[in-house]
Structure formats: structure tokens, C-alpha cells
Amino acid sequence: MLERAFAEAIDRSEITDETTERVLEAAHEQFRRIGIRRSTMEDVAKRAGVSRITVYRRFSTKDSLVQQVIRREFRRYFDRFLLDIQGAKTLAERVEIGFAGSLRAIRDNPLIGGLMDTEPEIVVPSMISDGGRTMTTVSRFVAGRLSEEQRAGTVAADIDVEVVAEMMVRISTSFLVTPSHHIDLDDDQQVRAVARRFLVPMLQPADDRSP
């Protein structure tokens, strides 16, 4: 489910009407307050001020509704990521800001971050126990940004951006699902220092890396 939400968020194709938006907003609030497992389609309908039939006409199952709600959150995350790195002047800055901002955005997200705390049995397996499909989907997004850097000449042509993207996503996921006892993820400067020390060198030609 989370994999599909990621994929569709990256694809960005979306057609919604006012009622669908109302249902999605109500579902977001319902899931955030009560959790996904304890929420029903009837709960969402009541919160949206529509009939249960109206909800089912737009979302045939609870899973499809959850998928669309999560998709919207990750679209917002991707948009925030791109906005955050706009002001950076160098590749290194973009990597640092992107890494720190990504961790902060997901951890602070009222829905996604909250679910990771209250219902990790739903979110965490989707991130790490789906045969790598979710990581692959998110890696595609990161690799796409790195490919743009490569075309702009800020990343060497011989760097395999797909491998680098996967490594970055795996590191980010590890921080999200397993708290660190050495790095304070609430301290952007610490997180950026990690990116500067370990992630940025992955995008430099071997001859330019410090021994």
C-alpha cells in the first residue's frame, strides 16, 4: 500500500473533485487522531459530512482510501523537499539540506510521523519488509534529482546515481525506523554534518575524495 502511494505521489497524476478532497481531508484528520486500524469508513464519512455510500463511491475499500491519504502526504513531502533545496548554492548544500529536511519532514508529519510512533506495525513493514519495493520507489525520486545534477555538470558522469540514491535512501530509512543514540535527529546541524561527511563524498569522483 505504501509502495503504491509513493509511486503515485512521484507520478503526480491526480484528478479530484471538491467532495473527494473533503473526504481525503476528513480521512487525514481521522487517521491522525484515532489511527488507521481503529478508524472505519463510516467514521470518515461522518467527519466529512457525507454519506458512507459517497465515500465508497470514491474509494471502494479502506485500503484504497488510506493509500490516497498517504499519497497526498508524500506529495507534500516531495514538494517540500524541492522547495527546501532551491536556495542552496552548491551540490553539497543541496545534499545536506535535502537529507536533514527529509528526515525532519517525515518525523514531524502529523500523520506519517505519528503513525510510525503509534502504529509502526503498519508503516515500518511497508518501508522495510516488502522486498525492497518501497525503497526502490523512493530511490527513483532521489535518483531523478541526482540525474538532473549530473546533466547540469555538478555530478561527474561516471557516478552511478541510482546506486548512490539507494544508499542515501537506505541510510535515511535506517534513521527513521531505528533511533540513533549518537546523532540527535532534532539537531539539523548534526544531521547536516552526517550528510556532509558521509553522503556528499559518494557523489565525488574517487580521485577527489579525501583518503
TrEMBL record:
Give the superkingdom in one word. Answer: Bacteria
The HTH tetR-type domain is annotated at: 17-77
Keywords for this protein: DNA-binding
Please give the DNA-binding region boundaries: 40-59
Q: Name one Pfam family in it.
A: TetR_N
Is DNA-binding one of the keywords UniProt gives this record? Answer: yes
- Organism lineage: Bacteria, Bacillati, Actinomycetota, Actinomycetes, Pseudonocardiales
Q: Which GO terms describe its molecular function?
A: DNA-binding transcription factor activity; transcription cis-regulatory region binding
SUPFAM superfamilies referenced in this protein's UniProt entry, alphabetically: Homeodomain-like (SSF46689), Tetracyclin repressor-like, C-terminal domain (SSF48498)
Q: Does the keyword Nucleotidyltransferase apply?
A: no
Q: Matching InterPro entries, A to Z? A: Homeodomain-like_sf, HTH-type_TetR-like_transc_reg, HTH_TetR, Tet_transcr_reg_TetR-rel_C_sf
**What's the protein here called?**
TetR/AcrR family transcriptional regulator
